[in-house]
Design a protein that fits this description.
heterodimer, A: about 325 residues, alpha/beta, Rossmann fold, two-stranded antiparallel sheet, globular, B: about 450 residues, OB fold (Dihydrolipoamide Acetyltransferase, E2P), 3 domains, seven-stranded mixed beta sheet, five-stranded mixed beta sheet, about 30% helix, elongated
Chain lengths: ~325, ~450
């Protein structure tokens, strides 16, 4: 779809057109700058409770997003801001939900971990680790029930892969051949517990094998690799062949949440990842190699900064929800 | 323009901290993500990362300074090309926090906000001709009627299709509606309940059958956290039209894990509706209403009642409103409030009391949440006494709620303290004689009423 003769070629994945690379760069940068700003607003006390940042994992959601079409559904856990932006939800609406204001997607009643968009087919934003896997399987069930070729993208961490309902879901999805792409975002740490200490299964991409679920292990820091794997998975699901499992080897630079002192890993490990495998730097280097001008990046940076500044401004000036909101949306009027 | 770096809050509870160490100092260039300092919070030592790129103009707080309030400026960050002197002229207006000074109203005393009145639908319509059918038939007819009426409705659960239902409630449905809409699952409550809730969030209308409600505990996270709360958490965007149904309460000789009432558990949850039919008419009318309801509804059935026959309207459109109780027997001396199989016990008790010249009014709640407090209170104001009858345990049970309603809303009319008749506060024993001792019987109700009249 994006392959053109003039496009950049890499051994790690298929070629992407200059336009697609620019879009990917812009989207990844938007997620990163958005999250940095969210971290800052949290520090200022404007965002409360729990706030889990996506910084470092941008290639996963952006690379998969390149392969989604109108009607495809997605769902994830509480590290959800990146998924929402890629689903097409507005930075203003997401940031205003983080600050608990009426301009937020849930009008201030959901917060960082609980945000949804019916319009953009984004089904949350779930605070219970693993719950989104069974729910996401249900999104795929609905696609099949309605006879569409839409797919459901279900994101979860390697930590959630220890939950029993993940395997109940695998079984159901395989039995019913549901168009469900399970994306394990393996960022190595479930809160403070490393994958080595949490999983006896050493290769999570094989965790769907007993149910015959097709799978790939993917370099989740490389947008080209993510894109290529996602393309294969999406085509497989759209063709009605059943679920697909993608293990994305990725990394989060920040703590589990804002209040994580990160004493379970060496600072040098984080720095090494940032220096050598950063998904945004990697893509930029490839784009420069393919002849894209430095000025393009400056323009994108300026553009993204303005969007994020606008979102932050909106999130601080949007009024708090009216007291009457306390009692709305508990039940749908029958 | 130069900007201030502020002391960040690094946990939901942090109000101040200690600047343990500067990692970057004046004159050093930083990019977004670089660690600039280490801060000791109330919980741990944490690193502070730069949000913007620039050059540290100067630091405003010395290493080791304690009790620095959140949002205090700790350093000045110079933008590209700015001179260090800009650090001295930077004012609070350059502070990103300045834009955050929107008044955050927190009323000192928000007071008690009253829940809006639940709209009450017409309950007492005469549906005309009836025929005697079992509760089992009534439930099946309700599902068949709604499956015919709406393509988005489907039934899912263990043994609901080929086996025709573990208790034969779904008999014939697979033949009529096919395997797309009557779906057998593996023994995987957590998984299939989550899957059904996910499908419901897209607008499909699943009926989830639990072989017994005991197994709903395997799936309770999805019922409470996923189904009941998503509408609220999504600001009204995403409702969950789903029914969770199955036999609830004690059956016969199946022991502790299969004999318990979940009315109190589920009635506790805002965002759920809970109904508990007694008769065939209750079963048919309430289940149809539950399937059409755009919210998650728990239907608490009863295995012993499945085989019992009651008159049920034959009208094809027959349906009952959720949230309305039914007065099964009128009386003047005491109000007996019951639901599900205990309605029968209350009616038997009323017959025994009548022999003693005591006139008992029997209310069949039909709906546990919302609770028809209006009917309860009106009755108590007439009889001046109330006894709740339930099979479930006493502590924090439905009876506790009913008695509270009577005390709160009809205190001046009460001639005796409200009383509760409940299942005994213990796990259900297996032995036939012990099991019998554990469950409420009409005599217990009669005793409770006698005590109220005597005192």
């Amino acid at each position: 779809m994006d392959e053109t003769p003039s496009a950049s070629g890499r051994s790690n994945g298929p070629a992407l057109s200059p336009e697609t690379m620019k879009r990917a760069y812009r989207d990844m940068l938007l997620v990163r700058r958005f999250e940095e700003k969210a971290g800052q607003l949290y520090g200022m006390g404007l965002i409360g409770g729990f706030c889990h940042l996506y910084i470092g994992q941008e290639a996963v959601v952006v690379g998969i997003g390149l392969n989604m079409k109108q009607g495809d559904k997605s769902i994830t856990s509480y590290r959800d801001h990146g998924q929402m932006l890629v689903a097409g939800m507005t930075p203003r609406g997401v940031m205003a939900e983080l600050t608990g204001r009426s301009g937020g997607y849930s009008r201030g009643k959901g917060g960082s971990m609980h945000m949804f968009s019916r319009e953009k087919e984004f089904y949350g934003g779930h605070g219970i680790v693993g719950a989104q896997v069974a729910l996401g399987t249900g999104l795929a069930f609905a696609n099949k029930y309605r006879g569409t070729d839409e797919v459901s993208i279900v994101y979860f961490g390697e930590g959630a892969s220890a939950q029993g309902q993940v395997y109940e879901s695998f079984n159901l999805a395989a039995l019913h051949k549901l168009p469900c792409i399970y994306v394990i975002e393996n960022n190595r740490y479930g809160m403070g517990t490393s994958i080595e200490r949490a999983s006896a299964s050493k290769d999570l991409s094989r965790n769907g094998e007993p149910w015959g679920i097709a799978s790939r292990k993917v370099d989740g820091m490389d947008i080209f690799a993510v894109h290529e794997a996602a393309q294969e998975a999406v085509e497989y699901c759209r063709a009605g062949k059943g679920p697909f499992l993608l293990e994305m080897e990725t990394y989060r630079y920040r703590g589990h949440s804002m209040s994580d002192p990160a004493k379970y890993r060496q600072r040098s490990e984080v720095e090494e990842m940032r220096r050598t495998r950063d998904p945004i730097d990697t893509l930029k280097a490839e784009m420069l190699r393919s002849g894209i001008e430095e000025s393009v990046f400056k323009d994108i940076e300026t553009d993204v900064k303005a969007i994020v500044a606008d979102a932050a401004e909106f999130a601080q000036t949007s009024p708090e929800p009216d007291h009457s909101e306390l009692w709305t949306d508990i039940l749908v009027e029958a | 323009m130069a900007s201030l770096i502020l002391m960040p809050a690094l946990s939901p509870t942090m109000t101040e901290g200690t600047l343990a160490r500067w990692v970057k100092t004046a004159g050093e260039t930083v990019s977004a993500g670089d660690v600039i300092a280490e801060i000791e919070t109330d919980k741990a030592t944490m690193e502070v990362e730069a949000v913007d790129e620039g050059v540290i103009g100067k630091t405003l707080v010395a290493e080791g300074t304690q009790n620095i309030a959140v949002n205090t400026p700790i350093a000045v960050l110079l933008a590209e090309g700015e001179d260090a002197s800009a650090a001295d002229t930077v004012t609070r207006s350059a502070d990103p926090a300045a834009g955050a000074s929107v008044a955050i109203e927190t009323p000192a005393d928000p007071g008690i906000v009253e829940a809006p009145e639940v709209a009450q639908a017409e309950n007492d319509r005469d549906w005309g001709e009836t025929s005697e059918i079992t509760v089992r038939q009534a439930l099946r007819d309700a599902m068949a009627a709604e499956l015919r009426r709406d393509e988005d409705v489907f039934l899912i659960g263990e043994e609901v299709a080929q086996y025709q239902g573990a208790y034969k409630v779904s008999q014939g449905l697979l033949d009529e509606f096919g395997e797309k809409r009557v779906i057998d699952t593996p023994i995987t409550e957590h998984g299939f309940t989550g899957m059904a809730v996910g499908a419901a969030l897209t607008g499909l209308k699943p009926i989830v059958e639990f072989m017994t409600m005991n197994f709903s505990l395997q799936a309770v996270d999805h019922i409470i956290n996923s189904a009941a709360k998503t509408l609220y958490m999504s600001g009204g965007q995403m409702g969950c039209p789903i029914v969770f149904r199955g036999p609830n309460g004690a059956a016969a000789r199946v022991g502790a894990q299969h004999s318990q009432c979940f009315a109190s558990w589920f009635a506790h949850i805002p965002g759920l509706k809970v109904v508990a039919p007694w008769s065939s008419a209750d079963a048919k009318g309430l289940l149809r209403a539950a399937i059409r309801d755009p919210n998650p509804v728990i239907v608490l059935e009863n295995e012993i009642l499945y085989g019992q026959k009651f008159p049920c309207p034959v009208d094809e459109d027959f349906i009952l409103p959720i949230g309305r109780a039914k007065i099964e027997r009128e009386g003047t001396d005491v109000t007996l409030v019951a639901f599900s199989i205990m309605v029968g016990v209350a009616l038997e008790a009323a017959a025994l009391l009548a022999e003693e010249g005591i006139s008992a009014e029997v209310i069949n709640l039909r709906s546990i949440r919302p609770l028809d407090t209006e009917t309860i209170v009106r009755s108590v104001k007439k009889t001046n006494r109330i006894v709740s009858v339930e099979e479930g345990w006493p502590v924090a049970g439905i009876g506790a709620e009913i008695c509270t309603v009577a005390v709160e809303q009809a205190f001046d009319w009460l001639d005796a303290p409200p009383a509760r008749v409940c299942g005994l506060d213990l796990p259900m024993p297996y032995a036939a004689n012990l099991e019998k001792l554990a469950l409420p019987k009409p005599e217990w109700v009669v005793d409770a009423v006698r005590k109220q009249l005597r005192d």
